Amino acid sequence: MSRPIRKTQAIAPFGPGAMVDFTGPASLIHAGLDAWPFDEANPEHREFRIDDEKRLARRLGVDFFVQPPDFRRPDRNGGQQRNLNLMLPFLRFPLWHVCPRCGRMHKGRYHDRDAPFCKGPISTGAEAGKMHPPRKTFQVRFVAACTKGHIQDFPWVEWVFEGKPGGWEPDGVERWLRMTSSGTASLAGVMVLAEERGESGRSSVVARRSLAGAFTTEADPAGGTGVSTALSQMGANCTGVNPVLAIGSELRPAPGNCGEPLFALLKSAANLYFPSVVSSIYIPDINDNSLPQDLLDLLDDRDIRNRLREGAMDSDNGLVSVRSVTNALAKYHPESTVQPAVLAEAANRHLLHGILLEDRKTRTFLDQRIKTAQDGQLPLGAVEAAVRSMNWSIDPALLLDALRAQLSGHGKNGAQESDDSMIEEASYRQQEYRVFSRDLQVGYPKTDLDIRGADLAQYDTLVRDAFSRIGLLHKLRETRAFEGFSRLYSTGLTRNEQRALFMEEQKNWLPAIVVRGEGIFLQFSETRLQKWVDLHGADLEGRLSLMRQNMDALAVRRHQEPRAISPRFVLLHTFAHLLINQLVQNCGYGSASLRERIYSAEGDSPMAGILIYTAAGDSEGTMGGLVRMGQQDRLEEVIRLAIDKARWCSTDPVCIESKGQGPDNCNLAACHTCALLPETSCEEQNRLLDRGVVVGTIDNPAMGFFADWS
Q1: Into how many domains does the chain fold?
Q2: 423 pairs with which residues across the strands?
């Protein structure tokens, strides 16, 4: 079935496991990675691989990522093309369909390209018992899911017979189901009937039941922590059906070992699918002050790196040869003036350790040697053994520092990179924060990350007092990787449980997309922040207690762990929203095209920064307008206007005096008029916002961080 979907949508919101309503109409579910048109052994598919985001790959426990392939038709002019007609896999779901003429229900199959056709018989009216002209059926609106991520068709037979069908099964000839509607908006108006063909040829109703009460959920009557649903009360529990892997068909029956309560849902329900997408800003892994900039950029070029790595793996001694460098430059960068011998020497110093670590056996061996070492450092002897196993001629000492940096948990940027710390988002963002806090002008490639610090002395008092650094990201690259999904609740499944839902055979890759753009990084003054907290800490804690109560209640409803909410985070988050709203007006970007990235932490490694950025799927990124707004003659005006507009909302005093508003009442002084953004731009789904911590309140105007600036 051919249906269009954008590459970025294939990660979120329509990643594996998501149900998508296409024109037709047709409701399809995105199938698992086992059916994706990607073959690691096919050299033509290498163009879809993302090999250079090692930081994110280590965090998610994979070797690389794969971009959804774009659909390509054959060239009419006969030009050479590759990877033609590749399509992402989608399966038909739900399987039950209903006839718009007579209401009779028909069950399709996962791989059916078209919906079933119905001819009747008609059940009511003057034409009762007669067949009607063939009509195309459409899929029902109702499905059922469990907290383990399984999803299946609504158990129609069990529901009609109240859990006691007595062996009654629809065969489509002598027995069938029929759905009728009275036209009312309630579920009581939807009636499901079980019918049989009688001896006279006319149908007779065996059982009937409306859908009233099908969505009822109650606390566990046994007093446990679980719930009891209307379906589970009649014995209809989950059997492990998973259309994402085509489990639940005649060829692949459900295992029947899940046993979790089934929840009745509309197929368009917001809690039917929660994708887990992990975002990462690319940080170069090459740092060598002795190399010129053009050479550094070549080492970071994706095409050059891949060709040189392939040349090293195919060579007799495992080294990048001058010949392979010459061929790579001639194909991808014929304009380059870099000498092939110089690039070959640099590649052997900076790229070969990555080839070693791509081999799982070698990486496991090196990890074990680190654990057994007394000083916790990778010994030179282990590197020598690894080099011998690859039959390389390179001096192992040249790879020692790079391998230690990758395996000991300390990357080139000085940030912790151990597997344990990667689990925590704050620890992961520490790496980006430390890089953004300094210029990447000497010793780093600038192909995908170009940071230039602005001179704070050139800005006015407002900027100099509030911020300790302004970083202008002329180039940035973001990788958004799909990690898994859950249903009903956004949390509760482990990584292995999530991945078992969309890949039957464990793979060493995950889907991801790469976008490029630009941004402005604002680092708040730690001294100014601490002074603000010391002066107004009690007032801030009292005000934010209302927000914490609502967030804790939300966590309980969603089966999530409670989270700490600090005045620092609310300040950074709200200011980012105010700044984005003002940038939209000043530089002409659409509000949904700008995104925020919050860096907030207290303790020994404090963070207090925001990144406002825009990114697009184009290989060249964006046009530079956002960086221009961060320069000395523009940023002060943008910040001042954002603060001035935050002082008074058109819905005040209702907004500023609110005790809880917005999504789940998790905001204080923040509404659509003053501080909310499109949800795709906000990391917190428009929660944890309060203008009061930025500009103060009516009762306590001095409490705001920017209250002293006019």
Answers
A1: 1
A2: none
